[in-house]
């Protein structure tokens, strides 16, 4: 650990710490690819998050308690990977954060779990003030295009822009994004329900989400029952059923970050896929 790194960390401490007292690790916080919700961060949003996440605390399962704090981001960097292309055809970019912890007897097991790849997936919580349609580039509240459908061969998705705040980042068991876990906070007016009456990728994903939520709320039996209940439902009904399971999990104090069932080949150390 060089002096520049130590200086960055010690900006957040009340006294100067030595290299031997500190543990550092990196996380992929988020990226510019389309996630399982049909949304992605704009390049502008990534630049905003790069600044906003400096100094943000790391917790567990988005449980905003001071006793739950375990690390802090002291440096960020946007990395472009020219060998990868996003689903919308641009160069893949991601926001990497570097975090530190103070080595103590209490967190030595956590450090071992990070080193061993057990504690790896993370999810961020932030606020985006603007949501744009990828087809017409208007705000989604004023356009007619439907997220998840193809227009002239291109997948319609939502572009998240104008990030006004970054709250925290968390270790989670099941992340939501393919390459990085994201928890996004928007106003109720921005919520959108699927409207397709035909079997689609969105409906398939809703069925998977329902099965997983049911599993976390009641185990395998509940998951099997939920799968049967969802069998003949349309997209709107599936969305409502998913919301009911989300409320059930929330009532039981369970926080679940969902993700698509895809290949797990892109895992980097201590990062979300």
Question: How would you characterize the overall build of this protein?
Answer:
This protein is an alpha/beta fold and 273 residues long. The protein has two domains: 3-130 and 165-190, no CATH class; 201-251, no CATH class. 27% of the residues lie in helices and 29% in strands. It has five helices and ten strands; from the N terminus they run H-E-E-H-E-E-E-H-E-E-E-E-E-H-H. It has helices spanning 3-10, 43-52, 108-115, 201-230, 235-251; strands at 22-31, 39-41, 57-60, 71-85, 91-102, 122-133, 150-151, 154-155, 158-171, 181-185. The strands form two sheets. Strands 1, 2, 3, 4, 5, 6, 9 and 10 form an eight-stranded mixed β-sheet that branches. A hairpin with a 2-residue loop joins strand 7 and strand 8 (154-155). The protein is globular, with a radius of gyration of 20 Å. The model is unreliable at 180-198 and 259-273 (pLDDT under 50).
Topology:
Blueprint: H1 3-10, E1 22-31, E2 39-41, H2 43-52, E3 57-60, E4 71-85, E5 91-102, H3 108-115, E6 122-133, E7 150-151, E8 154-155, E9 158-171, E10 181-185, H4 201-230, H5 235-251
Parallel strand pairs: 2-9, 3-9, 6-10
Antiparallel strand pairs: 1-5, 3-4, 4-5, 6-9, 7-8
Helix pairs in contact: 4-5
What is shown here, in short?
The chain is an alpha/beta fold and 273 residues long. The relative contact order is 0.17.
SSE succession:
HEEHEEEHEEEEEHH
- Measured by DSSP, the beta-strand proportion falls in 25-35%
Range of helix content: 25-40%
| Overall SS class | alpha/beta
Radius of gyration: 20 Å
Average the pLDDT over all residues and give the rounded result: 78
What's the total number of strands? 10
SS field, number of helical segments:
5
Q: Count up the domains.
A: 2
Low-pLDDT sequence parts: 180-198, 259-273
How far do the termini sit from each other? 27 Å
The outline comes out as globular
Biggest beta sheet summary = 8 strands, mixed
């Amino acid at each position: 650990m060089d002096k520049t790194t130590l200086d960055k960390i010690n900006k957040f401490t009340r006294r100067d710490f030595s290299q031997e007292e500190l543990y550092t690790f990196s996380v992929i916080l988020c990226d510019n690819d389309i996630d399982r919700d049909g949304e992605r961060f704009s390049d502008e949003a990534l630049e905003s998050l790069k600044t906003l996440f400096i100094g943000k605390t790391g917790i567990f399962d988005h449980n905003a308690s001071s006793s739950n704090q375990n690390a802090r981001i002291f440096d960020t960097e946007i990395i472009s990977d020219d060998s990868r292309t996003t689903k919308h055809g641009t160069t893949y970019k991601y926001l990497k954060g570097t975090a530190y912890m103070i080595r103590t007897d209490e967190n030595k097991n956590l450090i071992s779990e990070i080193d061993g790849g057990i504690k790896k997936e993370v999810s961020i919580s932030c606020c985006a003030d603007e949501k744009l349609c990828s087809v017409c580039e208007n705000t989604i509240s004023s356009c007619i295009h439907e997220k998840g459908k193809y227009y002239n061969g291109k997948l319609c998705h939502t572009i998240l822009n104008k990030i006004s705040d970054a709250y925290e980042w968390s270790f989670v068991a099941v992340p939501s994004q393919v390459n990085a876990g994201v928890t996004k906070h928007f106003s109720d007016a921005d919520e959108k329900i699927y409207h397709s009456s035909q079997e689609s990728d969105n409906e398939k994903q809703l069925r998977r989400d329902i099965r997983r939520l049911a599993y976390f709320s009641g185990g395998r039996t509940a998951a099997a029952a939920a799968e049967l209940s969802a069998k003949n439902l349309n997209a709107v009904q599936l969305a409502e059923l998913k919301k009911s399971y989300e409320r059930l999990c929330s009532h039981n104090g369970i926080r679940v970050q969902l993700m698509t069932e895809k290949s797990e080949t892109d895992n980097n150390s201590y990062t979300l896929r």
